[in-house]
Amino acid sequence: MMRDARIMDADGAKSNPDSTEDLALQGKCFSIQTVPGLDTPVMYVRGVGPKVAEMLAAKDIKTAEDLLYHLPFRYEDRQNPRSLDELKPGELASVIAEVRGSILLRTRRAPIFELTVGQGRHALKCIWFNGTYLNGKFQAGQTIAVYGKVEPSRSTSNMKMIQPQWELLPDESDDAETRLLEVGRITPVYESLGGARLASRWQRKVIFNLLEATRGAVPECLPREMLARLNLPDRESALREVHYPPEGTPFTQLQASATPAHRRLIFEELFFLELGLELKRRRMRERPGIAFATNDKVREAIREVLPFHPTTAQKRALGEIVADMRQPNPMRRLLQGDVGSGKTIVALQAMLVAMENGYQAALMAPTEILATQHFLAARKLLERSSRKPRIVLLTGSLDEDRKRQTRSQINRGEAQLVIGTHALIEERVEFDRLGLVVVDEQHRFGVLQRFRLMKKPRPDGTEGAEPDVLVMTATPIPRTLALSLYGDLDLSVLDELPPGRTPIVTRRVPGEESEKVWDFVRKQVKLGRQAYIVYPVIEGTKDDQPELDFSHDETEAGTDAASGLASQVSKARPFDNLRAGSGAPKSVRKGKTAELFPKAAQEANPTAKSGLKSAVDMHEKLRNGPLAGLRVGLLHGRLDADEKEIIMRRFQRGDIDVLVATTVIEVGVDVPNATVMVVEHAERFGMAQLHQLRGRVGRGAAKSYCILITGPRVSPLAEERLNALVRTQDGFELAELDLSMRGPGEFFGTRQAGLPDFRVANLLRDRQLLEVAKIEAARFANAPAPGQPGGYEGTEAERARVWARLKEAWQRRYGLVEAG
């Protein structure tokens, strides 16, 4: 909503417009402005307009508030810039200097643009590869700010920077406002919002003017009592100080987003996230559910099927699950456990509770192989049961007659346990009395898919009581991500392995020693064991293969230029925002390395030149070469479901000695006799993938081995991943390291449906604030109502503003809170 027009100076005071020019020369800036509310469409913000607003909308900036929450990704200290004679190799530095000259060098590899800047007798060489676009942009005598990693120059005694970020500073021809915002102060640097036109200089002016226009008009959205207890500034002060830090602000705090102003805005974002999740939990507790009985009859049914004495962790998890199932409101629980920790047997016991109460249970798995394995395992275990419940399997590959028959059994309630894939959420699948839903490997499903199964109607069209939901994952999730990604679920953790599981010996082997590996595989087969050999691609050098799912480092180039750039990026932004590439210069984002350094990128990525070893090719080479005489099978994602099942069953029966495969065997395949897992091009896989693959062995009593064969070039990040896998088998420790190395947005290999796209917070960097926000959100949501003992936090008006903010702003961004 537009507010009154008035004339304001930089300090917010009303002033005489006739004095604007004189005062501008004294370092103040005056302008006639229309004061917007934060919900004002961004096109009405001074300096924007309709065309620019369209460009901003593509960056999800649609209102004045969105623009204010577009924060600097770093700062430059232009109060005390570094002098060239102080620079040291290896450090990141911001330098203000004079342009001395430039040249475009055309080489066989790529054009190189060199710019020389200087201060007195000292000079700095700035180098950009593929820098043709910079030719003609600089003139001798201009003042420039450059930021990057300092490196020694081979040709002179001076220093150099590779691919530095740069900005020409204003001169006497620029207006006073531009000079005021860019020189002699801590200067904010923003991610470009649309090429050179919407770069940092434009953003500085527009955001500064917007801050001035909204002075005194930014509504607070958190209770004052909460801010005082947490020692956080008010919202308007925080926004102003994040964009334009006051003199004396510690520079290290600014670069780490750790100033009080930053912490206030980060806490605000996380608080409303957690408050939304807390509200979902409260509303869930108010919904009608099923209060399952857990009497002697149920306990006896569970004892009948247990194949071994459960671990302490399994007993604890089952106790938490059963306690939830007894309640009259729906259970929403996450069962998290490392590879082989026994999640499936715990889930099966929970499903028995539902079935013994006369309800149906459904288990949804992400792949047909895993669904089939669950089906066979459940059938084998439930053979021990005196009640012999009917178990059915529903997958997409079944013929239509079989599907129709299975759906009919589900509909009439004849099938007590239903196991399947995405086929379970098809509209034609209707349950008679669905009591419990188990979702395996939840991160492979969208959040909405889980809810579609939860909301399955009954055959008579009524919804009735909602079923309980148990979500399982074998991917250890750091608590930080669990709090946000599964914040609406209670958490149970299996943190110990069942008896009979032996430690897995993990070794790294360079590719040139692979013959020793094949000899070892032959020896294991001779002892009656079986082995997996995994490859990252199915065949050849095709780039459209769905299982090409290995990890990519931002840049792994082998040349000085490329490695310098990699180091610059990793050190400049150790905690990237969740938006992929946010804040990094376009030239250094993922996928751009090959454009900047084509030869270096090709050397670092053998796929680009000669191709990775593939499952199809190596299956032929191994069975006709090093593994000749052994029964060698092949399994990959392009085989149809029947072929996959036949091959997997042959391997489980022992009819195949060595299974050459892709990551299709990553999750859930259980062959106790398999003792060797060989992964070729291990440096190209993510840490979570390698840990999952390793978990396919060691499932029996025999000693097991995981052998990681690496290619000729292993990046520093890949070295760290591989060394961690050799060092530990603790999936939770590996998950924490994986999170710190890759960041939250890439933790699951793909963007997870349901992972919020934060504006200012970063789950990796802001773990402690997330914990605080969760506590504060629960405290606020569960505070006693007015007039009751204990009071409540904040005035009635403040609490109303909090709930309004949650409903109006955060529902739009995250959809976490239902309307109404």
Describe the overall structure.
The protein is an alpha/beta fold and 820 residues long. It is 36% helix and 17% strand. It is built from 27 helices and 23 strands. A 7-stranded parallel β-sheet has the order 13-14-12-15-16-11-17, with helices on both faces. Helix 22 (641-653) links the parallel strand 20 (632-635) and strand 21 (658-661). Helix 9 (260-286) crosses helix 26 and helix 11 packs parallel to helix 12. The longest helix has 27 residues, at 260-286. The protein is globular. Mean pLDDT is 76; it is low at 1-35, 443-449, 542-610, 745-754 and 816-820.
Which features characterize this protein?
6-stranded parallel sheet, 23 strands, 820 residues, alpha/beta, 7-stranded parallel sheet, single chain, disordered C terminus
Put the structure in a nutshell.
This protein is an alpha/beta fold and 820 residues long. Strands 13-14-12-15-16-11-17 form a 7-stranded parallel β-sheet, sandwiched between helices. A 6-stranded parallel β-sheet has the order 18-23-22-19-21-20, with helices on both faces. The radius of gyration is 31 Å and the shape is globular.
